[in-house]
Amino acid sequence: MLENLQKYRIRLASNSPRRRELLSGLGIDYEVKLLPDIDETYPDTLKGEEIPLFIAREKAAAYLPSMESDELIITADTIVYVDDEVLGKPKDEADARRMLHLLSGRSHQVITGVCISARHFQRAFAATTEVTFDTLSEEEIDFYVRTYRPMDKAGSYGIQEWIGYIGVCGMKGSYFNVMGLPVQRLYQELKKC
Ligand SMILES: Cc1cn([C@H]2C[C@H](O)[C@@H](COP(=O)(O)OP(=O)(O)OP(=O)(O)O)O2)c(=O)[nH]c1=O
């Protein structure tokens, strides 16, 4: 555990099992706080990394009023960005298929915004990974959506699932960032707190 963090009780405000797994991998002691339903809409003037940063701050805002002085809260948001279109979680299976067709045979960006909040400071940063998918057949997309039901995943895919194994042919940046938390960068930022 980082010495400078021992004065804080670290909280991960997230309902995502992937984020819990990733933060545990850092070897940091923390407690999970369930996130209330957050309105994930954002001003349409925002672009690229401004979007997940805005939403990660909104997630933190839900906790700020009740935060104790020794608490440090981590919140995050992941989006998939392709051709200036933001792909969040799909509305239904048809939407999931549409997104996967859009991502097939090309590169897109996965951006995670992270917000570290304490009573007297807030640090926010974003990390981007470029992911390239091989061409996905109709049959592969259909099998993945029916079997894995990626309704809780931005862009309708989990790189850690079957589709990541058979479909991802290139990547620039952090793999963990695609899964929902850029842990190496988070570690660096926590050291500065
Ligand atoms: C692109 C991609 C996303 N994801 C997941 C990470 C996030 O959990 C989810 C994006 O949705 P988010 O809204 O970022 O997070 P969440 O609602 O799951 O969790 P929280 O309670 O913290 O708001 O998609 C993967 O697991 N693998 C992937 O390859």
Structure description:
Helices cover 33% and strands 26% of the residues. It has 193 residues and is α/β, with parallel strands linked by helices. The protein has one domain (3-191): Maf protein (Alpha-Beta Complex), CATH 3.90.950.10. The protein is elongated. It starts with 8 loop residues before the first strand and ends with a helix. Bound molecules: thymidine-5'-triphosphate (TTP). Thymidine-5'-triphosphate (TTP) binds at residues 14-16, 18-19, 35, 76-78, 80, 89, 110, 152-155, 157-160, 178-180. Thymidine-5'-triphosphate (TTP) is lined by residues 14-16, 18-19, 35, 76-78, 80, 89, 110, 152-155, 157-160, 178-180. This is dTTP/UTP pyrophosphatase.
Q: Which structural traits does this protein have?
A:
7 helices, binds thymidine-5'-triphosphate, 26% strand, Maf protein, 193 residues, alpha/beta
Topology:
Layout lengths: L8 E5 L3 H9 L5 E3 L16 H12 L9 E12 L2 E3 L5 H11 L3 E11 L4 E12 L4 H11 L13 H6 E5 L2 H5 L3 H9 L2
Helix pairs in contact: 3-4
This protein binds thymidine-5'-triphosphate.
Strand content of the residues, in percent?
25-35%
What is the mean predicted local confidence, pLDDT?
A: 95
Number of helices: 7
The residue ranges in which pLDDT falls below 50 over 5 or more consecutive positions are none
CATH topology: Maf protein
Rounded radius of gyration (Å): 17 Å
The span between the termini is 13 Å
Overall number of strands? 7
What is the top-level CATH class? Alpha Beta
Q: Architecture in CATH?
A: Alpha-Beta Complex
Overall geometry comes to elongated
The main pleated sheet reads as: 7 strands, mixed
